[in-house]
Write a structure and sequence with these properties.
The protein is mostly helical and 188 residues long. The protein has 9 helices and no strands. Helix 4 runs antiparallel to helix 5, helix 4 runs parallel beside helix 7 and helix 7 packs across helix 9. The longest helix is centred in the last third of the chain and has 23 residues. The two termini are 26 Å apart.
């Protein structure tokens, strides 16, 4: 499961049980990336709020774009846990297999806008101090400052989550597809 203790849904009580019950009701199960926070319910709650805000709340970036960013960042970090989860989200959004594979590779099956977005996300992940060229590409495809901010926040979020998954050895759930429903997570 992970390199640290995770409190299961059956063992949970108090605030953790309340959070787990909400996740279970909304998502069909508690993903291991969330359960790894179980020793600190306040951190779990904060993580869920951040995830809700960046991935599901209104943004000039589409949900598709945010999920493509998740896959591109996770591929750059070699985080199989997050790649698998967010490829499933893309499939549920109707994104083609070629487009999903492109988010893991050279982005060539994607629009010019999506290519610029993912190139920036990859560069921010690998060399955050060297994004000038990618920033110019974002501007050339018409991204205003608000979209660039959201892009940067989503990219930073997935770098954060990838490091939790990789650093703590979070393993993919056998039934991970059940934790990918629905398209929102009203936990806060």
């Amino acid at each position: 499961m992970a390199r640290i203790k995770m409190i299961s849904e059956q063992e949970a009580d108090g605030p953790l049980k309340t959070i787990y019950d909400r996740i279970q009701l909304s998502r069909g199960g508690v993903a291991n990336i969330l359960a790894v926070h179980s020793l600190s319910p306040p951190a779990l709650k904060a993580h869920l709020h951040l995830y809700q805000t960046l991935i599901f709340d209104p943004s000039p970036l589409s949900r598709r774009e945010r999920e493509l960013i998740a896959v591109a960042v996770s591929t750059s970090n070699q985080c199989e846990y997050c790649i698998t989860h967010h490829k499933e989200h893309l499939r549920r959004l109707g994104v083609s297999g070629e487009e999903i594979a492109s988010a893991c590779d050279d982005f060539h099956h994607l629009s010019a806008r999506e290519q610029a977005i993912l190139s920036f996300a990859k560069q921010l992940t690998l060399s955050p101090d060297k994004t000038e060229k990618e920033m110019a590409a974002l501007r050339s495809v018409g991204l205003p400052d608000r979209e660039i901010l959201d892009l940067t926040l989503v990219t930073a979020y997935f770098n954060f989550v990838n490091r939790i998954a990789l650093g703590l050895g979070v393993e993919l759930e056998d039934d991970y597809k059940t934790t990918c429903e629905p398209d929102s997570l009203p936990i806060t």
